[in-house]
Amino acid sequence: MDDSDDIVKEFLVESYENLDRLDRDLITLEKNPNDREVLASIFRTIHTIKGTSGFLAFDKLGAVAHVGESLLGRLRDGHLLLDREITSALLATVDAVRRMLANVEATGVEGERDDSALIARLTGLQRVSEAPRQMEAPSDLRAVAAAAGASPATGSPEPGTREIGRSEIGRTEARSPRITIEEAMPAAPTPAPAMGMEQSAAPLAEVADGQRVQQAAPGPSAADRTIRLDVGLLDQLMNLVGELVLARNQILQFANSTEESGLLVTSQRLNLITTELQEGVMKTRMQPIGNIWSKLPRTVRDLAVGCGKQVRVEMEGQETELDKTLIEAIKDPLTHLVRNSVDHGIERPEVRQAAGKNPEGRLSLRAFHEGGQVNIEIADDGAGLDQARIRDKAVQKGLISADQAARLTDREIVNLVFLPGFSTAEKVTNVSGRGVGMDVVKTHIEKIGGTVDLQSKPGEGVMVRMKIPLTLAIIPALIVTSASERYAVPQVSLLELVRVEARGERKGIEMIHGAPVYRLRGRLLSLVYLNRELKVGTKAGDAAEPASRSGIELSTARERNDLDGPAVNIVVLEADGRQFGLVVDEINDTEEIVVKPLSKHLKSISVYAGATIMGDGKVALILDVLGLAQGSRILAEGREHIQADPAQATAEVANGKQKLVLFTGPGGGAHGGAADTAGTSRKHSGIAGRARRQSMGDAIPGADSSADSRQSCARGAAASAAWRRCAVVANHRDAAGAGARKRTSVLRTGGEPDSRHRRKHARTPHSIDAGRRAALLGDRGAGGRVAGCSCPAARRRTVRTGGGHWGQDLGPKT
Amino acid sequence: MTSARQYCTFYLNHLLFGVESQKIQEVVTYRELRPVPLAPPVVSGLMNLRGQVVVALELRRQLELPDRPANMPPVCLVVHAAGGAVCLLADEVGNVVDVEEETFEPSPETLSPRLRSVILGVHKLEHELMHVLDTDQACEVQALSKGQSSEA
Predict the structure, then answer these.
(1) CATH number of A290-466, picked from 3.40.50.790, 3.30.565.10, 3.40.50.720, 1.20.58.340
(2) Residue A774: closest CA among A762, A756, A792
(3) Residue intervals in chain A for CATH 2.30.30.40
(4) I need a labelling partner for A259 at 20 to 30 A (CA). Which of A159, A273, A353, A422 fits?
């Protein structure tokens, strides 16, 4: 009894809030009847009220909401355009619902009012839409409205499940910016039976409304322990805490300069309390992604049962924290992708068995931080996408021309599914196939500044990767100093730290035609000087380039030792699967930082991912490791477009052809993926990297140098405590997603290169000048032809050599 | 464009400028800015404004005036712009003035088109001319050429 009272109370509170918003939304909509987002928001609100009242057996309420919903459904489908009458009728509905709720609150029942007039009015409005509107309708309606005003009412047709499914996408951002602090809420108290009933009442809405269900029907204890807060309030608190931190710092400085022991003690306490307060406030906004994932297994199960499939859901990285607003924003796209995977991706058990797969399909969800972003991967081991069909379909639908289609790479083809209106489904199911899905997913992810990428391997499945920016997220970062300014390097990109002393290991830094490289455990690591990249200071490395422009011969760093200062700090980073060393003036410490977005004035500078405020109140810039790598030609610019299909490469390797898959840098340089044997002399085979590489069909063990972090730190003569800490953190990180990053061009060799040579060969560093790189490549091409590698702007390049070995003499032997 | 309005005034290189007072969020004393390498010259740096990172733009550069002498600390006018708060650096702040529409005259054609988009016109005050600044334009920074960061 008490339980149901609480449920009703929750329902009332929530409904009142929703109704207030409905009033506003309706008015907004009247002014701008084409605003689909507002319309969708209204629709959802009414739908929620209908669903919940059905569950609570408030039949009259449900009936009113139902007609209102039907009318809205017609509006949303564009059969009807909102005008004043409809708005009035809808507002009357809101009033009727509100009155009934008031009655429920006071007496526990809906009241004896007769709502049939309102229901008739709403139903009438729907019919009007079917035929051209008649002139007398308004007066009739006004009469009805008068009646309705005296006694509010109800009634209604069926909105149909089709619209509901579609409205789910887009549901989140329209929701009012509220946050429910549910961390304290134990999972158990939601009464299971209540859940079941709700679901049967509104089966299709349950996914998106799952959270709502929880809010509507929590056990008594949970309700007492959670409160709803305006996100704006949290933002305000966060800013105030920021100010407090500044004041605290000043007081600390002041206290340290006095002899007053009382002040010292007090300020120390202030210090501790402030720190804890800061952490606490920050935490309020963060939620583990597991919160939304936890709803998915149920969705998958229901779908799988519906389609006669067996699907197992695997999750990794549930604890990855995301800002609440981002969590909300990705919820629907995520649900959609999962549905897609189950409906289209994973085959029926018999088909799977015939293909030699486990009859039970696997759907894996992975989340992790990388490159200052949160990556979410949704992968299935289904049939993969049918590229030929996608291409044909796209041409057939006029989305691309046949001519364009012929030029697309496999990877570009699979990404056609993101085009608006694209669907290959032969028949429309209630789950997917209407062609509104993937483009909506893409739009929604892009709206929050993220990206979506799709990879498919025929017969092996599809992986969709979303990269979500971590705006407002708190990330661990390494603070470095360059030209006396501090920069934060996201820890996720960090592999290890190396300090090269003036004596001893100094000889480790060598030059390949002016491009500095460092021998890290025998492997050459391209170096990028932060000062030079940012064009600040002139401390390190500036002398290198002009000195070496003239010749092709190798120069060594020994010749210019004195220019580099006493010691060199190298931060070994990984961006998009490529490693490089960032040379900075000083390495400070690791810190948890709050990422603040950069204003639009600075968005175009790709080397920054954002800014942060340091403990002392000063602003520091967060480096974008990817942008930095691109800027320094470690990675190709516009690498999204230089993507050959890794599956194809794999297939050809399997065919026994000798094939090297290379990354092209803007300098036309090549390295990467399957070319690990040839391009780099990766000697350290880690464990973490291996599985993923193999999963991409590459049998070569991947190097995971984070496994060597500690070792290398110890090597650095002056490895400070901070360094060691970083290294350990770096060590724990997952060697993230190497498999997905094979953006490749292809290099064929006519003959079998001598593997001994290949092992010793070190690739030309990508930081080297484009022209010189081309020359170097061409020079050692053994009669080969170097095509198009000198133009940094070239998007797609194929580097071919006519035959024989290439480059076996270049680079130091290891 | 103008009617009886209230303007917040400030000086730049001895010229009087005015910004509609409701566009101004606050005026704060100069605090240390974090320079941003590779940013356009008009971006002086980033400022911590009570926990918000706000970009500071040098109005003198924006208006093609000579740089401020090193010994003159600027003041920060925090204005509401399209993308959020932006801090505009000026020499010193003046009074808040009420002006009538009649005293307004548009910028002369002899002004460069770029400046004319930023300076809407002048109000003829009793003793001097007050340049009316379009804050949205003043907060615009020409986009960097795309390759800039990769030329290193």
Answers:
(1) 3.30.565.10
(2) A792
(3) 474-631
(4) A273
Q: Could you tell me the CATH number of the domain that includes residue B79? A: 2.40.50.180
Cβ under 8 Å to B: A residues 610-629:
611-613, 617-621, 627
Query: Is the CATH number 1.10.3720.10 carried by domain A474-631?
Result: no
Minimum distance, in Å, between the CA of residue A87 and any CA atom of chain B: 32
The yes-or-no verdict on residue A480 having pLDDT over 90 is yes
| 109-168 in chain A: CB under 8 A from chain B | none
Question: HSE (CB half, 13 Å, CA atoms) of A803?
Answer: 2
Helices (H), chain B: 59-62, 113-118, 135-138
Query: What CATH architecture does domain A2-171 belong to?
Result: Up-down Bundle (1.20)
Minimum CA–CA partner of A242 in chain B: B51
Could you report how far apart the first and last alpha carbons of chain B are, in Å? 45
Domain A228-288: CATH architecture, name and number where available: Orthogonal Bundle (1.10)
Q: Which of A240, A485, A601 has its CB closest to that of B55?
A: A601
Total Cβ atoms within 10 A of residue A257: 8
Instruction: Please tell me the distance in Å from A274's CA to the nearest CA on chain B.
Output: 14
Query: Is B41 domain-assigned?
Result: yes
**From the CA of A531, how many Å to the nearest CA of chain B?**
9
**Cα dist. A367→A278, A288, A737 in Å?**
26, 10, 10
How confident is the model over A693-702, as pLDDT tens digits? 333 333 333 3
Instruction: Give the domain range for residue B82.
Output: 5-140
Distance CA B86, CA B76 (A): 9
Tokens 């029926």 correspond to what residue?
A348
Joined together, the tokens standing for residue A366 give 């992975």
CB contact under 8 A, A602 and B55: yes
What pTM was computed for the model?
Answer: 0.46
Helix, strand counts (H, E) of chain A:
31, 23
Strands A321-323 and A286-288: antiparallel
The answer to whether the beta carbons of residues A509 and A520 sit under 8 Å apart is: no
CB atoms within 10 A of CB B116: 17
**Alpha helix segments (H runs only) across A550-697:** 625-631, 646-654, 676-679, 688-695
Spatial contact of A518 and A500, defined as CB atoms under 8 Å apart: yes
Determine, for residues A242 and B50 on separate chains, whether the beta-carbon distance falls below 8 Å: yes
For tokens 């988009």, the residue is B117
Q: Are A627 and A534 in contact (CB under 8 A)?
A: no
Q: Does A530 touch chain B (CB under 8 A)?
A: no
pLDDT(B142) > 80: no
* Touching B: A residues 451-480, CB under 8 Å: none
In a domain, B108, yes or no: yes
How far away is chain B from the Cα of A26, in angstroms, using its nearest Cα?
27
Distance CA A412, CA A399 (A): 13
Q: Quick check: B48 contacting A, CB < 8 Å?
A: yes
Express each pLDDT in A566-618 by its tens digit: 678 899 988 766 789 999 988 988 877 777 778 877 877 888 888 888 767 78
Tell me if B147 is assigned to some domain: no
Q: In chain A, which among 636-675 make CB contacts under 8 A with chain B?
A: 637, 666
C-alpha span between A511 and A526 (Å, rounded): 10
ipTM above 0.90, yes or no: no
CB atoms within 10 A of CB B6: 12
Does B85 fall in a domain?
A: yes
Is A605–B38 a contact, with Cβ atoms under 8 angstroms apart? Answer: yes
CATH 1.10.287.560 maps onto chain A at 228-288
**H runs (alpha helix) in A387-429:** 387-396, 402-407, 410-414
Q: Specify the residue for token string 């422009």.
A: A549
The answer to whether residue A532 neighbours chain B at the CB level (below 8 Å) is: yes
d(CA A361, CA A577): 29
